[in-house]
Design brief:
This protein is mainly alpha-helical. The chain has twelve helices and five strands.
Length: about 450
């Protein structure tokens, strides 16, 4: 907490200076509009012969004086940075305004138009709301002293008595009575203005504190909602992973059982052709059908091995493999030639890193993966396009959460892209499911 003297001596923040300047701009605009209205009333009084020409000229100059000092004050106030300087200059501007209002009262008839002291009341009310409470009483005192000086100057003949009423001017006792009433009313206005301003400030501070408390409550509620949403999302992901694991386990169990049954049947289909080939001559007509039976059996055996791998019961051979060699081998294979025969409008572009790192994996399964990806890419471009095959090295400095978590370390990237129609959102969710296909 700062004492009052420290607050007055400190430099105002730019935001506060901007806010106060905007308030004074609005005040100057209101005073200018009010001055124009007063001038209009003076003009009407002149046309209706209530005012003489010197009345109207005096009021006009007084109003022009008020408009000029209001706008000049804005230029000075904008460059003030100290709180004390700002308050002192504001009171000085109030005094200059009071002189202008007093001049209007004087040229309008002086004590005869005492009702125009409502101009003082309006100024005191505005100051009470916009300035510190003590300023209301200071401005009220300045209004009373200035008005009293004006009456004294008229009474003692220092300035002429400008009256709009032809009757003789009221006596000193009457003028003192009017002055006492005006003093009492102005102090009442100052008290009401200061009290109202205090209530407004207290309510504004309470409202500000309530808004702060509400903002904090809203932030806390927002954090709780976000945490709950994250928890729900994490729970949904774990639930989906559990369901996927259970489904894969069921599929694996089924595939393992089927694979073992087929293996028992295949033992004769794969082994007996070799025995028959040993018994027949090289030029026998039966050799080609028997070789076909043998190759078909070997293909079925490879499928069985895939089923066993899916069931995690097969014997997976992990070797040191270079993906560039596997890709080159496939692109020069009869299978790829056959693919190009069916998709002659598809072009293949490769960007293989010459310094590609070796990896540990199953050559058979990796070759099938490359073959299937390229085949799917070709089928996704029925009207032609380009298949891009790229390999590169990549070091991951922090773990990645993807389909399978990737720990920190060196990795090899295999990217196979195409310019085809793409995969629908529905199908993307199932690309890692076994036996899922859209081929008829």
């Amino acid at each position: 907490m700062h004492s009052g003297s420290e607050q007055l001596a400190e430099t105002m923040a730019p935001e506060k200076r901007t806010r106060l300047h905007k308030r004074h701009v609005r005040g100057a605009l209101v005073r200018s509009i009010a001055s124009v209205c007063l001038w209009t009333f003076a003009l009407a009084a002149y046309w209706m012969d209530f005012f003489q020409s010197y009345h109207f000229i005096g009021v006009s100059y007084s109003i022009l004086y008020l408009v000029v000092i209001s706008h000049l004050a804005l230029v000075v106030l904008k460059n003030l940075t100290k709180q004390l300087q700002y308050e002192i200059f504001s009171l000085l501007i109030n005094q200059l305004e009071i002189i202008g209002y007093t001049a209007i009262i004087y040229f309008s008839g002086g004590i005869d138009v005492a009702f125009l002291t409502l101009l003082y009341a309006a100024l005191i009310t505005y100051v009470g709301v916009a300035a510190p409470p003590r300023h209301s009483f200071i401005v009220a005192s300045l209004c009373i002293s200035t008005f009293s000086v004006m009456l004294a100057l008229v009474y003692f003949g220092f300035i002429p008595d400008i009256t709009v009423i032809p009757d003789p001017s009221p006596g000193l006792a009457y003028q003192l009575l009017i002055l006492a009433i005006i003093i009492a009313l102005l102090f009442v206005v100052a008290f009401i203005s200061a009290t109202t301003a205090n209530l407004l400030r207290q309510n504004r501070n309470e409202l500000y504190q309530q808004n702060l408390a509400m903002d904090q409550a809203n932030k806390k509620l927002k954090q709780e909602i976000e945490e709950r949403m994250r928890s729900e999302l994490e729970r949904s992901k774990l639930q989906a992973q559990l369901q996927q694991a259970q489904k894969m386990e069921a599929v694996g169990t089924l595939a393992g059982g089927v694979a073992h049954d087929i293996n028992n049947i295949l033992s004769g289909i794969v082994s007996y052709p070799d025995l028959l080939l040993m018994q027949i001559p090289e030029d026998s007509e039966l050799r080609e059908p028997i070789l076909t039976i043998k190759k078909s059996g070997e293909k079925v055996a490879a499928i069985v091995q895939d089923l066993l791998t899916l069931a995690r019961r097969g014997v997976t051979i992990a070797e040191v493999v270079n993906l560039n060699d596997l890709i080159t081998e496939y692109l020069t294979s009869p299978e790829f030639d056959k693919l190009q025969l069916y998709h002659s409008h598809v072009r293949v572009e490769t960007q293989l890193n010459k310094d590609l790192l070796n990896i540990s994996g199953s050559p058979v399964h990796l070759s099938k993966t490359v073959m299937n990806l390229i085949s799917n890419a070709a089928e996704a471009m029925p009207y032609g396009g380009t298949i891009g095959i790229r390999t590169d090295n990549r070091y991951i400095d922090q773990p990645l959460k993807s389909f399978e978590p990737a720990a920190e370390g060196d990795y090899v990237i295999l990217a196979i892209s195409d310019t085809g129609v793409g995969i629908s959102t529905h199908d993307v969710e199932k690309i890692f499911e076994p036996f899922y296909t859209k081929k008829s």
